[in-house]
Specification:
By secondary structure, this protein is of the alpha/beta class. The protein has two helices and four strands. The protein has a four-stranded mixed sheet, covered by helices on one side.
């Protein structure tokens, strides 16, 4: 049940199309069915990073069962490449937070 939340001040010309592309690519990168993926894209009009207002981002990735230090390196590189290709975001202009979630049942 991966969940990805992207906050960015980069210009996104078609938010719906980008969100759908991000969902599909995230499923491929994380190795999970897209039917389990939740993507939130939050445009942020004002965001600073490293003291400037150049395009930047934060990305929070939470998932069950597939988060390890080795995989995190692969996930980070591939997600950064996607953000660069689609939004022109450089990997040194943001932070990614990848964490393993525990499933809670009642």
């Amino acid at each position: 049940m991966p969940s990805l939340e992207l906050k960015t001040n980069a210009t996104i010309s078609d938010l719906n199309t980008f969100a759908l592309e991000f969902s599909k690519r995230s499923a491929e990168i994380l190795g999970k069915p897209e039917g389990y993926i939740t993507v939130s894209v939050v445009p942020v009009p004002i965001m600073t990073f490293a003291g400037t207002m150049e395009p930047a981002f934060t990305l929070i990735v939470t998932s069950l069962d597939n988060i390890t230090p080795e995989k995190n390196d692969v996930y980070s590189k591939e997600l950064a490449q996607f953000l660069n290709e689609k939004l022109g975001l450089k990997s040194d202009r943001g932070y990614m937070f990848v964490s393993r979630s525990e499933c809670l049942t009642r």
